[in-house]
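Run log, item B.
One chain of 278 residues. Sequence copied directly from the ordering sheet:
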Amino acid sequence: MIDFGLPDYPRSTARLAPSRPVVLCLSGHDPSGGAGLQADIEALLAQGCHAAPAVTALTVQDTVDVSDFRVLERDWVLAQAHAVIADMPVAAVKLGMLGSVEMVDTVLMIMDKLPGIPLICDPVLRAGGGGALGKQDVGFAMRERLFPGAVIATPNLPEARILAELPDGSADACAERLLAHIEHLLITGGHGDEPDAVHNRLYLRDGSVRTFTCPRLPGSYHGSGCTLASSLAGRLALGQDLIGAVQSALDYTWRTLRDAEQPGRGQFVPRRLPLDLG
């Protein structure tokens, strides 16, 4: 046996701390590390949660744009999710890129095994660079089949317009149509035209609207939507109330964008974890 020179610490049979809430993440893999499952994992770690990532799709993309993707076969996705569900107490499910109508149906099959578990839906339809991550019918299928079972969806305004089938609709108009399908809706304001501020609007089923305003940052970002939805899923898994969870997730996401870095030739990547992890 190889001796690595490690100290011989005594083995303890007691856990040092309670387990962190587990969030099952169903999303695509981004090889640039800016978005997708890596964003989910980092954002959930920052909330004090454990990410259980199940791959739904493989993408060819960088910080500039996406050039191709392949949705995995249903059996592979089901096998990943069922392995997690059989082994861990899932506290929340976060959806990202699905890429096909078949994958929407696959998510419904998975959620049948998790009655009462909150579902947070980030309707990923396009990459930050504008490239499509699914056909138009994917958005329709998500709206009609997944939204009714979700606690909240977190589209940006272009995604909300696709989902609401209102190409030039305002956030309010899109929300009015989409709230017929989902309990709560958070439409992010990064694509708004206000030069100094971003207005993120939380639409509640009771008809009330909460606006969360933050200073607008320069530049564009790869993975900001994944970061927001995952941190929100983490806050809900920890038991925080919805409005408090939205505020916490928005505050955290803004800080990751403020401290973002540019590892490639394209968009900035949110810094979701501190530099010093020691």
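Observations after the first pass:
- The radius of gyration is 19 Å.
- The chain has eight helices and nine strands.
Flagged for discussion on Thursday.
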